[in-house]
Amino acid sequence: MSPVSPCPRCPQCPWCLHCPHVPAVPSVPCPCPQCPMSLPPPRTGDTGVMPGPWGSPRWRCHPCHGGDIPGQRWPDPDPCPCPHPCPLFPSLIPGVPKPFTEVIKANIGDAQAMGQKPITFLRQVTALCLYPELLANPSIPEDAKDRARRLLAACGGHSAGAYTASPGIELVRQDVARFLQRRDGVTAEPGDIFLSTGASDAIVVLGGVVTQGTHTRGATLDVTPIPGLGATRCPFPRRVPTKGPLCRGCTPMSPPGQVQSRQCIEDVIKFAYEEKLFLMADEVYQDNIYAEGSAFHSFKKVLFEMGPPYSEVVELASFHSISKGFMGECGFRGGYMEVVNMDPAVKQQLAKLVSVRLCPPVPGQIVLDTVVSPPQPGDPSYDLFMAEKQAVLSSLAHKARLTQEIFNRTPGIHCNPVQGAMYSFPRIELPPRALAAAKAQDQAPDMFFCMKLLEETGICVVPGSGFGQREGTFHFRMTILPPTEKLQVLLEKLSSFYTKFVKEYS
Questions:
Q1: pLDDT exceeds cutoff 80 at 191
Q2: Pathway it acts in (predicted)?
């Protein structure tokens, strides 16, 4: 059998570690640092550069390089690209009979891929901006047309196809600032706001500025779902090695689905202050609050209500996105980052790094504007907009309760209330024989369970080991986004498989 190109996946990819079809002498070295086909370790004094196939220098993915790529893991890997029958997962090969009719991608928070309908006003304004001839269409509400004209007037050449300023359209940044001021009761400046290709891209850009140097300290919130987490006091942030003085907060939390209390956020801010850490607040799920008595508290609002010295010293960047919430516009790639108390010299470098990326996608900026400045009472689009928004959020709240109820009926599965966000994060008990079988496959136990689940049922979930779960515990992350009827079948099917799995390995 002829060899194929090495697996190009990430460091924790199980396929490039085990696939027998990786060539013994690849023509192109596999970029995965744990793959046996990867480049050799550096020699003493190695600079991290070695001659390429044609004598040119080629950077390699190695810890001596300035980046931390080898240590990163992505919990949603794509299927193995090797076209040969794989001895690990034979039932996933095309043409091989499968015990299921479809693969259910319950691993990602892609609402519209799961059947959620777009919000009409968002799409009308976007369509008008991309095809202005629709402005003559009498069936489109006038407030949508007015918004489109306003946005087009702020674009170069009155066209959504033109580059914008690197931090984004100034008009949209002003609308974001007004949104933040209404939300928090705290002044927000357009100059502190950077529009982005989704929240994830903003985090990457900011990381390129604040993680330089030789710092090796940082922290993240413990994401292991603890009963009542966020209802009273927050657990002390867990130290993790990072390439910079960072502290990450997230509310509602993903994946556990808990909503942080105000006291919890205060504790995080105090910790960042005491440790002199830059605080990054992931707030993309701020609209996704389901539990009665839970509420969204922005890090910025809490920071300024705490007053000096915290409000004057703690450096904060908060992130929001059009991909989550009630919008679910993942493919448009839109979001923003607001920086607070950032050192002017660092902010200047951030602006420089942003400018290298030219500008965020204009359609994403347009959608973002409709989110932060939605129709108001009395506008022609208001009633439909509110009805669609409430329908999405009510459906998600119902599915959050349904997920908890069905999982908790199954012995060995423990699911905390899904108070917010778009995922459940059940803890599962795995028998010793399953742990031994996983070790024999060189896999984390919950990865072993998730792959067996995929292979036998077609249900794709994410192992908790990709999220830094507490040692000795096992979880999986599953979205609550599928339609209610499909979600119920999925939950019952998954619960039945778990019972069968435990029996098989007991």
A1: yes
A2: Amino-acid degradation; L-alanine degradation via transaminase pathway; pyruvate from L-alanine: step 1/1
